[in-house]
Structure formats: C-alpha cells, structure tokens
Design brief:
The protein is an alpha/beta fold. 21% of the residues lie in helices and 28% in strands. It has a single domain, classed as 3-Layer(aba) Sandwich (Rossmann fold), CATH 3.40.50. The structure holds guanosine-5'-monophosphate.
Length: 173
Amino acid sequence: MLLRHSAIRKRVRDVAREISRDFSGERVHLIGVLKGACVFLADLIREIDLETSIDFMAVASYGKGKESSGQVRLNKDLDSSIQGLNVVLVEDILDTGLTLSYLCRILMERKPKTLKIATLLDKPSRRVNDVKADYVGFTIPNEFVVGYGLDFGERYRNLKDVCVLTVPADKSD
Ligand code: 5GP
C-alpha cells in the first residue's frame, strides 16, 4: 500500500482549499479525464467552496497492460463549450505527460479564461513531455499503482487506498 485513504482524503481537502482560494469569488469548471479521475473528481468537487460545473473527456492511452502505447486517442469530447471559463483539468496521474499535453493543446484552442491542471498523483521521473501540474496531490516514485479510480485492465478502481501493483514474473518460458 502506497497511500492510505485517510491521507488521500486529507490531501484532497488541501488541494480543494488551494483551488477555492485561487479562484475566490469565481466559478470553476472541472473537466474530469475518464475513467481514472472520476473518484478523485468526486471527492475534490465536494471540498471546493465555489460555484462549480463539471464535464468529462475520455482518452485512451494505455490499453490493457501497464505500458503506454505512446499515443493518445480522444474517445469522448466535452458536452459544452469552455470559452471564457476557469477550467481545471482533473487527472488521476501525470506520468509521461503525453495525455495532458495533448488535452491542454486541444483545450487551449477553445479559449478558456484560464486552464489549470489538478492531478492526484505525479510520477515526474517518467516525464517525456514538459507538462507541469498546478495542483498535485502526491508525488510518487516510478511504480505502477492502482486504486482510488486507477485500474489495471479495469480492475481495482474501487480500492480506497492507492497500492503498488506487483505482477508475478511469467514462468511460462
Ligand atoms: P501519461 O500520458 O502521462 O503517460 O499517462 C497518463 C495516463 O496513464 C493516466 O491517466 C493513467 O490512465 C495511465 N497511467 C500512468 N501511470 C499509471 C499507473 O501507475 N497506474 C495506472 N493504473 N495507470 C497509469
């Protein structure tokens, strides 16, 4: 186990407080990156003390395994325009940065008032693209993690804690 639920809850509250302070008196539009960010977003939004709205995007980058394909595909676009809005893009984990740099590029073209990134987890050691999150829950080492929305082949999203996934070595060869 890497991060206990109680520690996550406390940190999510702190991040929400930072967002509430930075956008004091304004509305924030949270965009969740499906599916991994849904648990983080659900907890985060309930701790934000501002007018909020939500939308979602879905991207595919990892497939069923642990290694990224290196390509990002947009599977679901936003329901509504973000022009003039304070957008906070909510992601579960920032790894190579390919997903977020792709999403930031297409979102900036839509002229939001501001665009910030909130990620629960950051694995800076794996970065390929130069992306920096404005709000980071936890910086973690280069391990494959599951739980609190993060999956391995669609499993484990329901774990309350964030855990390191260790796969037994393949003994077939
Ligand atoms: P990036 O494009 O930054 O390499 O990867 C972002 C996406 O890769 C995340 O949204 C997540 O879906 C997936 N990912 C990266 N690292 C992990 C990990 O440790 N565990 C899980 N479950 N997914 C990961």
